[in-house]
Design goal:
about 700 residues, mainly alpha, three-stranded antiparallel β-sheet, 25 strands, about 50% helix, globular
């Protein structure tokens, strides 16, 4: 009995010691930490402006700048919305003016990453556009459906669209902002590089009324879903022209991560239940083949056999994603594991070996990544567990102690000895400092649980915005979901591309008439003219109905981006009339055709080769070119002279719709999938209903 009493006392002492080791955070303590993060951001931001602007990124050891991703002052655009979140409206307005004056468009002859340009530039500009009303900036009539930042974001997206002009609909990894896909560009790209567009492109489509962006992004997601392995896993790299996987390792980390993230966030933001269903299907096989004792490993996509028992720093986003679907209990177990690695080194290395419990000797750096603090921020908002504040403070202390330099904050080259590297990626200001700031700022407007809102006037009437539920893209740029429904109305319309094609046909008929000198065709021309007037009268009468139009619109559509059923009937009627008219040939024309086909052709009129033509081999072509003068050789070797098929966005969209390469998901209308238990800061009214508290679901 004495032994039992002693054991109980020891256990009680240990429990009490644990309780006392957890710091109690009062409101003033949290505010103090928030202000410390503000100072951190300000030091890095001011250093960028002083030493690096207009280059993309700051080099904090050299105290200068360097272009990395595109030579478009990347850090400045990436940091824009953080200024609004911190309430620094004066600086936000000043920087927006600088960006708009410097960057009229992105017509630059430079190769850029499609993935990085989308999440950092398109995402940054869209977020700044949607938050601009908070700064007191003068808004254009029709905002949020119009605005200079929105037009700039669309200019970038238009240049990225040609990357999707592939046989599978999955995009190339690199694009030239001026000319499109570079000659010789590899068709192999990573899974995340295919599946990380639906948030930004969906937002663009909903704001501008142009379905192009959302449809190409959604088509790419369907392509990945279609190319899953028989057991439901996806690989790491895929050939976008053939659909063949070139890297078969399957995991939730680098090269794959944001694909899963965007299935969840795209479902919430755009209210597309099929995306949530895709994620739930993936989640089941991930837990079956990749989850090992609250860690996730890498395995073959074909059989699920273990290949790499490692933890990647990039995987730290996963608990945050689970919290978005109401699974914070599971997420809390994961976050404790990930934080234990941080405590071991003071940072999380890029790769950590689970078997040895050590950082990889080849991937031992910490480039100021945000994923761990991102998940901590999400989980704290849902659970209010003070241990998450302690984790956040640990991260803040480590960065302040080991990454600070007089000119900013530096990448940690080796987490084992905290040596520094001369780079500060733009995501340090866009993500890491933002998630830290929001963790310690519980009253920020970003966390609005739906109790406040604002009414704005739009071309479609009054619209309620800023009611919370902000969805972050993978670069931490917040998107207000309520604004995506300000620029649409249930109007009937005709697809403008159909009208355009009809105009082209009629114009071609006029040209043919001008070239026809035979008087006997006058009667036919009159008939054609009467037919044209009949068609135009019918179209104009149909167009008089209310139509969805903004200055960027190229098509008319339903609120979900599809063409209306009545419109489909109208288009079919027009096509049927055109087909009947042009296929109607009189007997005279048929006889004339037969007569011409029987007409004798003399040998002088046509020379036919007696042998099958054999094209020269590559070696013969090269040898022939070498015989030419050098100036001609140089000209032929230039890429500029070669004719390239230009991607026409409207034709790309029509091709996707026509081919229907990938079937629609069966859960496209299952809106109950969106009614998951979500954190309080995702409470918002939506078309599908409301996100519910766990108590409401179980009640």
């Amino acid at each position: 009995m004495k032994h039992l009493s002693l054991a109980f006392v020891l256990i009680l002492c240990c429990v009490c010691e644990t309780c006392h080791s957890l710091r109690e955070y009062k409101k003033e303590d949290i505010i103090k930490l928030r202000e410390e993060v503000r100072d951190m951001f300000q030091h890095a931001y001011d250093s960028y402006l002083q030493y690096a602007y207009p280059y993309d990124e700051l080099r904090p050891l050299s105290c200068d700048g360097v272009d990395t991703w595109g030579s478009y002052s990347l850090t400045l655009i990436d940091a824009l919305d953080m200024l609004v979140i911190m309430g620094n409206y004066t600086e936000f307005n000043r920087v927006v003016d600088i960006v708009l004056q410097k960057q009229k468009n992105f017509d630059t002859d430079i190769n850029v990453s499609v993935f990085e340009t989308n999440i950092r530039i398109v995402g940054g500009l869209l977020s700044a556009h949607l938050l601009s009303y908070k700064s007191g900036m003068k808004l254009e009539p029709g905002w949020p459906c119009n605005g200079p930042l929105l037009r700039l974001a669309e200019d970038v997206a238009q240049r990225l669209i040609s990357a999707f002009d592939t046989t599978t609909g999955m995009p190339y990894g690199t694009i030239n902002l001026k000319s499109g896909v570079p000659p010789g560009e590899t068709s192999v790209t990573c899974t995340a590089g295919v599946g990380t567009f639906i948030v930004e492109f969906g937002t663009l489509s909903r704001l501008t009324g142009d379905p192009l962006y959302e449809e190409v992004a959604y088509n790419a997601l369907k392509a990945l879903y279609h190319h899953r392995s028989p057991i439901g896993l996806v690989g790491n790299h895929i050939d976008v022209m053939t659909g063949r996987w070139t890297a078969h390792d399957s995991g939730i980390g680098g090269g794959v991560d944001s694909y899963f993230e965007y299935l969840v966030k795209g479902a919430i933001l755009l209210e597309r239940p099929e995306l949530m269903s895709m994620f739930m299907e993936s989640r089941k096989v991930i837990d079956k083949y990749l989850k090992k004792d609250d860690w996730y490993v890498w395995a073959t996509m074909l059989r699920g056999q273990l290949t790499l028992p490692i933890f990647q720093s990039l995987e730290s986003y996963w608990p945050g994603v689970l919290s978005l679907i109401g699974e914070s209990d599971t997420a809390m177990r994961l976050i404790h594991n990930y934080h234990s690695v941080w405590k071991q080194y003071g940072f999380t290395p890029e790769v950590y070996h689970l078997g040895t419990g050590e950082a990889s000797t080849s991937r031992e750096s910490y480039p100021l990544r945000p994923e761990l603090i991102e998940s901590i921020m999400y989980l704290y908002r849902d659970t209010r567990d003070p241990i998450l504040l302690q984790m956040g403070e640990d991260i803040l202390r480590s960065i302040q102690h080991s990454a600070w330099t007089p000119c900013g904050y530096a990448t940690i080259k080796d987490v084992r000895d905290h040596r520094k590297e001369d780079r500060m990626e733009s995501f340090f200001l866009a993500e890491t400092t933002k998630y830290l700031y929001l963790l310690f700022d519980p009253d920020n407007f970003i966390h609005n649980p739906g109790i406040l809102g604002r009414i704005v006037n739009t071309p479609n009437g009054e619209c309620v915005v800023d009611v919370g539920g902000y969805v972050f893209n993978t670069e931490a740029h917040p998107i207000d979901p309520s604004m995506l429904f300000c620029c649409h109305e249930a109007s009937k319309g005709v697809n403008i591309s159909e009208v355009h094609r009809i105009y082209e046909i009629l114009e071609e008929e006029d040209n043919i008439h001008l070239q026809t000198l035979d008087a006997e065709n006058d009667n036919k021309t009159t008939a054609k003219k009467d037919f044209r007037e009949h068609l135009m009268e019918k179209i104009e009468k149909h167009e008089s109905a209310s139509q969805i139009r903004t200055e960027s619109t190229t098509s008319y559509l339903n609120i979900d981006g599809t063409e209306r059923g009545e419109e489909d009937k109208f288009s079919s009627d027009i096509k049927e009339e055109l087909s009947s008219y042009y296929n109607a040939s009189d007997d005279t024309e048929k006889e004339k055709g037969v007569e011409e086909s029987n007409k004798r052709v003399d040998v002088d009129d046509l020379i036919v080769s007696q042998q099958d033509f054999m094209p020269p081999s590559a070696r013969q072509v090269k040898e022939s070119i070498n015989l030419l003068p050098k100036v001609i050789q140089d000209f032929l070797n230039m890429d500029a002279w070669r004719s390239k098929t230009k991607c026409e966005p409207q034709r790309l969209l029509e091709r996707i719709r026509r081919e229907k390469r990938y079937p629609d998901h069966p859960d496209a209308d299952k809106y109950s999938l969106l009614l998951t238990p979500a954190p309080s800061f995702l409470q918002r009214i939506s078309l599908a209903g409301e996100f519910l508290y766990k108590e409401q679901l179980h009640g």
